[in-house]
Amino acid sequence: MELRQLYYFVKVAKREHVTKAAEELHVAQSAVSRQIHQLEEELGAKLFLQKGRNLQLTPVGSLFLKRAEVILGDLERAVVEIKEFLDPESGEIRLGFPHSLGISLIPEVVSAFRKVNPSVNFRFKQGMYPSLIQDVMKGEVDLAFVSPYPEMHPHVTGQIVLTEELFAILPPGHPLSHEEVIDLIQLKDELFVLFSDGYSLRPIVWDACKEAGFTPQIGFEGQETDTIRGLVAAGMGVSLLPEMALHGSGKLQPSKVRVKSPQVTRTIGLIYRSNEKLPLVAKVFQHFLLDFFDCSHSNTR
Fold it and tell me: Which residues pair with 239 in a beta bridge?
């Protein structure tokens, strides 16, 4: 059995199509088909079944995929560790983060880190809260920023690096737009522009409204902070957003008002796999981030 066979098998399993896998691998389709066939012969079992134009893993194929991913993941980490041992000031950091942090925070911290570590490269992966947790658990990223911080998770650990206040955002001509502070109950009759299900800011806003004594009326839903901010600025409703998500470049921008009662915050955590050593270069970046956010007194598990 060859590593190339495992690599081809995982690609086909992910793409569910030999031709698409071959295109991604930049090899001939016949080469991929041949390697899969040889692998099935050696294992004495079918790994795929034809389903229309696509391929579907057999039960044996699903079992083998889990093991193959672990083997290839371990091999990739071994190569990274050797490169870091030979040159500890270089390497690649695989970093996950939600869209709301990509506007200003991620560019800021990466730029600051690369000023003192110019040889380090980054591979970024954006995602929603559940997918970022999964990416860390599967080893697809070394570190991930997530919000809220998962206090008691069996497979990931980390630190709270930032607790951020959420502000009410209102259309520019809204009667409350010139107030310095408001109570959230003052928005009970407004339409809210909220994130879609699966985005971590949605339950934070929803729970804050419930704590204030009302259920928010949803007017519109979006999947990016730019969309939420833009719809509010256009007069389509109100919302709550963290300050770092309020940096916009368009001409039309919402008004920002502090919420006094209840005060609404979100925690941002830096997480990694439990019971597993970080790659050296990722460990260096982790220590840099803790100093950057001055987390010496943050909660650490």
Answer: 169
Instruction: Tell me the pLDDT tens digit for each residue of 85-136.
Output: 666 566 889 999 998 898 889 999 999 999 998 989 999 999 999 999 999 9
- Tokens 């560019």 correspond to what residue? 107
